[in-house]
Design a protein that fits this description.
alpha+beta, about 30% helix, globular, binds zinc ion
């Protein structure tokens, strides 16, 4: 399920799996489907992210 979050007065839609935020729900959904299916993030999708959670630097 895509989650909504307010960041700097902007609503972003979060991929529940990787936690990246997008300005539109469709992209967040795409990311979530991709993450679920492949277990990784698609660069094509993540480059559209407008919000990156801070503990993103995990190996
Ligand atoms: Zn994702």
């Amino acid at each position: 399920m895509v989650k909504k979050k307010k960041v700097n007065d902007q609503t972003v839609f979060l991929c529940e799996i990787c936690g990246l935020g997008y300005s539109n729900k469709e992209t967040a959904k795409q990311c979530e489907q991709w993450c679920r299916k492949t277990g990784t993030c698609s660069i094509e999708i993540t480059k559209k992210a407008v919000y990156i959670p801070t503990p993103f630097t995990k190996e």
